[in-house]
Amino acid sequence: MVSFSRVLSAGAFATIMAVAPLAAHAAEISPPTGAGVANQVEAIKPGSLSAETVYSAVASAKPADLGGIMNYCIQSNYLTASEAWPVLAAFNKKTNDVPSNQKGNMSYADGSTGLLKVGGKAPISLEDASADIRKQACAKVEARAKSML
């Protein structure tokens, strides 16, 4: 007579063997990074983006990208909300990137997640820069937005 524990062990072994290839395949697939261009962001080691790369992206960013990044900066506490919100509100009103009909600009949405498009190249994520670079980049974003008002 075959013992119950042996049958259970064989069943458990068969289940593990059937699931193992699925688990291995899942480990090879990167999870999606977000909406829009966020899916195009390459895996970059956090903190590896240089100040030059980030500041250059900020300097060449289009208004919708700037508004979104400024929103990210406020939400991430790199800019003081009481000072930056009025600037962002005026900037959004001028650019109409967040219209009242809820049909906003995808660049603004991506920017709000910390993504910044760089002139036709793959977007960069501010999350891949050091906290000091992010803070300085946010100050540059605010200054640029103010200058465009």
Provide structural commentary:
The protein is mostly helical and 149 residues long. The protein folds into two domains: 1-30; 40-147, no CATH class. The chain has helices at residues 4-28, 51-60, 63-75, 81-95, 106-112, 131-147; strands at 115-118, 121-125. A two-stranded antiparallel ribbon has the order 1-2. Helix 2 runs parallel beside helix 6 (131-147) and helix 3 packs across helix 6 (131-147). The chain is globular.
Concise synopsis of the structure shown:
With 149 residues, the chain is mainly alpha-helical. The protein has helices spanning 4-28, 51-60, 63-75, 81-95, 106-112, 131-147, and strands spanning 115-118, 121-125.
What are the salient characteristics of this protein?
58% helix, 2 domains, 149 residues, mainly alpha, 2 strands
The amount of beta strand, in percent, is 5-15%
Oligomer: single chain
Count all strands and give the number. 2
Span of the ends, CA to CA: 86 Å
Shape: globular
Provide the number of structural domains. Answer: 2
What's the tally of helices?
6
Annotate the secondary structure layout.
Layout: H1 4-28, H2 51-60, H3 63-75, H4 81-95, H5 106-112, E1 115-118, E2 121-125, H6 131-147
Antiparallel strand pairs: 1-2
